[in-house]
Amino acid sequence: MQHPDPLAPLLRWAADDRVDQARRRRRRQSALLSQAGQAATWRAVLVDLAERSEAVALGTRIGTVRGMIGAVGEDFCAVRRSDRMVVLIAFAATASIGSEHPMPTGFRGTAVGWTLAEALAELAHDQPLVRVHASIGPVVAGRLRRAGTDVVTVQTDDAAQRPISLNLAIVDAVTLWC
Asked: Fewer CB near the last or first residue (10 Å), C or N of the chain?
């Protein structure tokens, strides 16, 4: 006659406990991922991609802008294209972003505390050549002369070389000619 193993109940209990622990870990991991996804922001996804220094394709109102995100501000990002030009793109003009790698969670803060207006005001000191893409009207090309809280002024590079001021609220992107 076989005697029952006195450790059998203990071994069953230990196996059941391991299964329960694994189930709890999966639920907790799923809950944490869900919380991170719910707290994600557009800006934070861009910051994550900028920190990775990887190529992206940003879908915008001016078309697809391909390059590496160099900086992220309060309301814009700067993308360095392969031709070394930099495009400052307002978040309001962006629709999508693609990458060859898995997308980040987007659970971060801002890399640069500047707004697009502040960045343009700082850049205006050097009066760089720019192309300003607005959601209304033609592209304005010339020298960036000044930028304020809600206005940017470009001296055109055409024969008239006249200054044109644009409402910053309709500026989708500014390409800097480097």
From this structure: N
